[in-house]
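How a chain folds remains the central question behind the approach discussed here. This step matters because it turns folding into a mapping between discrete strings. The sequence in question and its structure tokens are set out directly beneath this paragraph.
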Amino acid sequence: MALKVTKEADPIEVTRMTVTLYAAPGLGKTSTAFTADNPLLLDFDHGAYRSAFRKDTVQVERWADVADISADDVSAYNTIVVDTVGRALDALTTHLIAENPKFKGYGGALSLQGYGALKSTFGTWLKQLSGFGKDIVLLAHMDEQRNGDDVTERLDIQGATKNEVHKQSDAMGRIFVENRQRVLTFDPDAGGFGKNPAGLDPIHVPHFASSPMFLADLIKQMKDTLNSKTEGQRKAMQELADWSAKFDDAESAEDFNALRGECSDCGDNVKRLLMAKAKAKGVAFDRDAGEFKAAA
């Protein structure tokens, strides 16, 4: 089977995203997730009942309840929410030890082999969810780590599975309180993790009674921004290719001077290409005269 190659100038459309949100307890992670686009919440944390904005929910009692989730199970929804990743891993830990006693370590925790199975099994499950073509929202509790007076906020996720969540997340945001107002930021900093591919500024989290599609609109904004960048990159590549063809046809200093006038409003990449093409053909640019001249 031949490789399906996407050319450098071809757009790659972002149609779905995996977004991770983490926060301290009580800051409305679950309610925020319910403002996603037509969500189905997998409630490992058993806290969905506390949200005044509750949508359809699966009360997960054991890992087997979701292990074989299928595309048909979620066909009526546009977003799948995992609430929370930490409690999902607890359920998976119990399942793995029951399936294979070798995964049980000292004191009932996972063995080293068990942690490896936890990471690979959960990573495969996340990829399975992503394969359904839905947006994925992963919720996590916040874990504070102190070093003297410095406080670092991390995801409360056990073992190396935390790295798997980082890798599979397209965007990662942190909810915190500033001046008695909830704020959502996707920027990484010394105090917490983040992934901000769309370059969003910190956002004040509204009351969801007045903004019931808050997260849906936010994820759409991210997709639109990324897709506009992709389209802009495609146009820039096409412009560069068009100018390159024109530069290839130029032979003399006069030709390159004429082209320099034509592309005077172009970007730096086009201008650098013009200089490189002229040099390759023995035409030098005289900076004092401000024009191309045939090389001596």
Summary: Residues 214-249 form the longest helix (36 residues). The longest strand covers residues 135-147. The CA atoms of residues 175 and 184 lie 4 Å apart.
